[in-house]
Design the sequence.
């Protein structure tokens, strides 16, 4: 009986060490991927139109095709997408040009880079794009 308990404890310790090593590896590997920077050199020049037809088309694309509103909310002001004890809290960016929004500082090319390549202005990845 004692031998069984000893072996059971040894197996438990080995399983815990392997699990801790796996968690550590995932943490380090994901941090390395998130810190990676990308250099996007060629971006298409996308004109920004403000006529009524273009605005209607843009609203349709945001809400039904690209599904931007699912993460950035209907007004593109950002919202909390995931809030869990296990995964953490993920909030999407405020894309508007209002207070706290990146729209006031981003150029058209910055939005093109983020949408087409999933890369921020500083070269780091936009995690969910």
Sequence:
């Amino acid at each position: 009986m004692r031998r069984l308990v000893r072996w059971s404890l040894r197996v438990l310790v080995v399983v815990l060490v392997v699990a801790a090593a796996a968690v550590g590896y995932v943490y380090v590997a994901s941090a390395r991927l998130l810190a990676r920077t990308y250099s996007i050199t060629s971006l298409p020049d996308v004109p920004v139109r403000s006529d009524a037809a273009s605005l209607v088309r843009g609203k349709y694309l945001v809400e039904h095709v690209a599904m931007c509103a699912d993460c950035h909310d209907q007004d593109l002001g950002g919202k909390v997408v995931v809030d869990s004890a296990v995964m953490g809290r993920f909030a999407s960016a405020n894309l508007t040009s209002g207070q706290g929004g990146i729209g006031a500082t981003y150029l058209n090319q910055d939005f093109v880079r983020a949408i087409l390549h999933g890369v921020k202005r500083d070269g780091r990845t936009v995690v969910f794009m």
